[in-house]
Amino acid sequence: MSNFILTLSLKTEPFQETILNKRLETGRQMYNACLGELYKRYDSMKQSKEYQKVCKMTKGKERNKQFNELNKQYGLTEYSLHTYVKPMQKHFKTNIDSFTAQKIATRVFNAFQKLMFHEADKVYFKKYDELNSLEGKSNKTGIRFIDNKIQWNKLSIHVIIKKNDTYAQMALCNPVKYCRIVRKLIRGKYKFYVQLVLDGIPPKKINAETGEVKQPRNEDKVGIDIGTQTIAIASESDVKLLELAPEANNIEREKRVLQRKLNRQRRANNPHKFNEDGTIKKENKGKWIQSNNCMKTKHQLAELQRKIADIRKQSHNKLANYVLSLGDDVKVEQMNYKALQARAKETSVNEKTGKINKKKRFGKSLANKAPSMFLTILDNKLKYDDKELKKIDTYSVKASQYNHFTDDYVKKSLSERWNEFECGNVQRDLYSAFLIMNVNDDLKTINRDWCFEKFDKFKELHDVEIDKVKNSDSKLISSMGI
Length: 482
Description:
Elements: E1 3-11, H1 14-46, H2 49-55, H3 61-73, H4 78-91, H5 98-116, E2 133-135, E3 144-146, E4 149-152, E5 155-159, H6 166-171, E6 176-186, E7 189-199, E8 221-226, E9 230-235, E10 239-243, H7 249-269, H8 292-326, E11 329-333, H9 337-341, H10 363-369, H11 371-383, E12 390-392, H12 394-397, E13 402-403, E14 408-409, E15 418-421, E16 424-427, H13 428-437, H14 448-470, H15 477-480
Parallel strand pairs: 8-11, 11-12
Antiparallel strand pairs: 1-5, 1-7, 2-6, 3-4, 4-5, 6-7, 8-9, 9-10, 13-14, 15-16
Helix pairs in contact: 1-5, 2-3, 4-5, 7-8, 8-11
């Protein structure tokens, strides 16, 4: 079943904000208690002889079965954690209901599972003021949305629904599955929101004056070649070479200035925490001293990070709507962003300078541009129409190496940004997007006949787009080879 989220502001009084802050803090303490208990149980299991025997078994169904039995034996299951949190909830029953307590336990267990499956190195405890959301399991008990109000353990808060907000009014026609209370720090002050998780699909936005759908969909094929900071889009009607979330660039500069300022303030306030070479003393476990100016800079930095996140998400949504206006048969290469984010394992030397190359890879650009987030947004929008983002087999297709004229593969270095054809040069990323658009339904082979049929139109649109990029102010032009 599909569902979507509608976020609405809460009209809170000061006493209600105090109660909500208290409940979030109680939820944080319960979260940390559950996480501490899981660590104890996990360490106890790891020290057992049974666990060590199972680890030595060959990977397969039998080994997985044995691990599951050990998890049940040592209480490393979601429902055993629900049992653990039950007496804790009774102690805090005036603030936290049983369903919300169970959701806290589930949240901890889902995070801890990543550690158990070796997908994460560590699960961190929540610091003071770090837990900023709590949610229920249904709209029948606990946190409920009734008559445009949030009802939760004798607390009743009005939800702000504007009269001219037709989208919210249309969305509220769908049944509410459960509610989530969210706290955000905006311009140095906490504001509270409710996220209603609604059953069904989001309503389409309509132009109030004309009555037309604002974001119309098309049914053509679209190919996407996405990088760490750029995206190439090819369709039968348009070709684009764009930077991901360019609106966030100016704010990123401000963020770096504030980070440097915060670092200077931290060093000035805590000289005893640093060695002579500027590194942090690991043996010094004392508290960090934070001045009022340091706290102001922290709040300014938090506000900027919130703005960047909102702008980036809005930009990705706009781009996803544009892609769907070109077509809903969207294909993209499979990308392992975790591998791109990780530091290089092997040490390499630059042949020209003789210096050792940095082991940093694409972590910073991936964090700034969030290409994976864009693909998730696009996939979610497609799922509302019972379709999905098609991920081609990268190793079988080899879009960056294929030449449909000669039907062969030529491996190129990353610095080679152009393909040379008799009809003229074609930008490498755009040509890859064109080939991805013409991949067969098996998602493993390129349909050469489609390539010949559509190439002339593509080349015409390609040349127009390259001229636009040349005349743009983008600083990523060099990485595009333009």
